[in-house]
Amino acid sequence: MSIAGNRADPVEFLGSWLINKFRYYSDLSTLLFLSFKELISERKKGFSLIWEITLRQIYFTGVQALKVTAFVSLALGTLVIVEAGSQMNLLGGLKFICQILVLVIIRELGSLFTAFIVIGRSGTAMATELGNMIVAHEMEALRAMGINPVYFLVTPRLIGVTIAVICLTIFFDLIALLGGFLIAMLILPVDFITFLKELMSSLTGVDLSVGFLKSFAFGLLISLTCTYHGLNVRYSAIEVPQAATKGVVSAILACIIFNVAITILFYL
Amino acid sequence: MSQQEFINMQHDPIIEAKQVSFYFDGRPIFQDLNFQLNRGEAYLLLGPSGSGKSLLLKILSGLFLVAQGSVKIAGIDLAKAAPQVLQELRVKMGFVFQDAALISNMCLYDNIALPLRYHTSISESEIKIKIAEQMAQLQIDRQSDFLLPAQLSMEMRKRAALARALILEPELLFLDEPTMGMGEEASLHIWQFLQAYRQKKKISVILVQTDWRSALPFADRIGFLKGGKIVCAGPKEQVKDRLAQISRPENFLF
Predict the structure, then answer these.
(1) A–B: how many Cβ contacts below 8 A?
(2) Is B220 within 8 Å of B41 (Cβ atoms)?
């Protein structure tokens, strides 16, 4: 069909766009369902192998990202504390700073920034690795050996990345709050103990639940979208970087949309 | 192999493909193709480059399912079999890919151990013993144990792929250019090993080999693939006279 044909028929264009979107989300849901279904149906096969791959994923996504996460969280924590601190006298003192910190870091940006770090490091790596495996016929080799590719490749990545994102978010929040405060203490007249007491009184169970829910969902969304795009490579090595780009963009969008949705849900 | 043994084999097919048609991106590759591999038999599949030999191997092993016709292994229709049944079947099959297809992020040792670790619950010490035996038989250098496939020569990769395919002691073996990238001496060793292994374990083998002369002593039957069909097939003794005429790829045209 010509481009002119598409322009002449916006309804058809919209229809095909909607069908493609429906297919995409239906494929993602199927992959998510299969990865946990296979975990049950294949549980007796190569459990130690799957466990080892999961641990390796946690190490790569979580442990190896500690440095960059510490740097970003420290910078964000410092910025938020200094900015809020400069308005402290105008808007209600230390209590106000702590409430801002809980809102900005624990409820909103802690999990989102962690997700962006993980997407940049592990999301691209997963999509590229799986894409390359398809091009090199390794996926066929796994199937020929009777090894379930979803159970062997997707399930450990889903579990590993999700655990790593949750742990990294906790690390991010701690460094952002405490480390950021230590730096801000140099320029603000607040002592650490008073700050800690105010922070604890501002922190509620809902804040922690929102932070946890978001990091859990981000972990699943990142691993799911990136493995999906990696598995969608068909024949050529040229498709591999394209798959990585698609995976990253989809993961970022999915995280942002989910973040907004959860925030609205908890405020309403 | 005696005449009687050969006749007995013909009544016991392990692979049966009937009226198989296969399309790749809408383009017909095979049309109404029929194929039979008998239990204990070694079948050498020949054909010009691009005739679909490797693809046929993947279809016959169930890696690609056909839309028309049927492929049966041990009486099980691959298109209709449940995933669990297909998986159990694959445990009894070994496949050596043209480019070895070792898992790129696993070292050579882990690649060979992979089927054992996935499908069996034997201990690491037992796995170690089994792999040591397999590697010794295939003359795989133990200093390469912890090297990644990208760090190995093609010859070593093919040996490792063969070791991986045989580690679960399969009943049916698919070999796609098993000696590609090997020197004459190494190639001869692999064929001798495979011949001895086949006689000992009574396995059935289907193989694709461009350098057909080296594979000839190993094969019982030969088939020529051309234009999406097996145009000439028969016992080695009957077909080998025609093979003598083949010295260039264009002579595959019948």
Answers:
(1) 63
(2) yes
Specify the residue for token string 């040996």. Answer: B159
| ∠ Cα A201 A206 A209 (to 5°) | 120
Chain A contact set for B87 (CB, 8 A): 146, 148
Ranges of residues in chain A whose predicted pLDDT is under 70? 1-8, 88-92, 184, 187, 268
Q: Check CB contact under 8 Å for A144 and B61.
A: yes
Q: In angstroms, what separates the C-alpha of A42 from chain B's closest C-alpha?
A: 10
Q: How many CB atoms lie within 10 A of CB B105?
A: 16
Question: Once rounded to an integer, what is the mean pLDDT over residues B104-114?
Answer: 95
CA of A41 vs chain B CAs: smallest distance (Å): 9
Nearest residue, CB atoms, A145 vs list B58, B105, B115: B115
- pLDDT tens by residue, B136-168: 999 998 898 999 999 999 999 999 999 999 999
* Token pair of B9 as six digits: 């084999």
Sign of CA dihedral B96, B99, B100, B104: negative
Q: Which residues of B touch A41 (CB under 8 A)?
A: 84
CB contact under 8 A, A145 and B118: yes
Residues of chain B whose beta carbon is less than 8 angstroms from a beta carbon of chain A are 58, 61, 63, 84, 87-91, 93, 95, 97, 99, 101-105, 114-115, 117-119, 164, 174
User: DSSP string spanning A181-246?
Assistant: HHHHTTTS---HHHHHHHHHHH--HHHHHHHHHHHHHHHHHHHHHHHHHHHT--S-TTHHHHHHHH
pLDDT, position B106: 94
ipTM of the complex: 0.89
Instruction: For residue A70, count other CB atoms closer than 10 A to its CB.
Output: 16
Average pLDDT of chain B is 88
Query: How is the beta sheet containing B13-24 ordered, strand by strand?
Result: B27-38, B13-24, B68-73, B76-77
Distance between A135 CA and the closest CA of chain B, angstroms: 10
Among A140, A142, A137, CA closest to B91? A142
- Separation CA A6–CA A108 (nearest Å): 40
Q: Which residues of A86-95 are buried (b: 16+ CB within 10 A; e: fewer)?
A: eebeeeeebe
Contact A222, A251 (CB under 8 A): yes
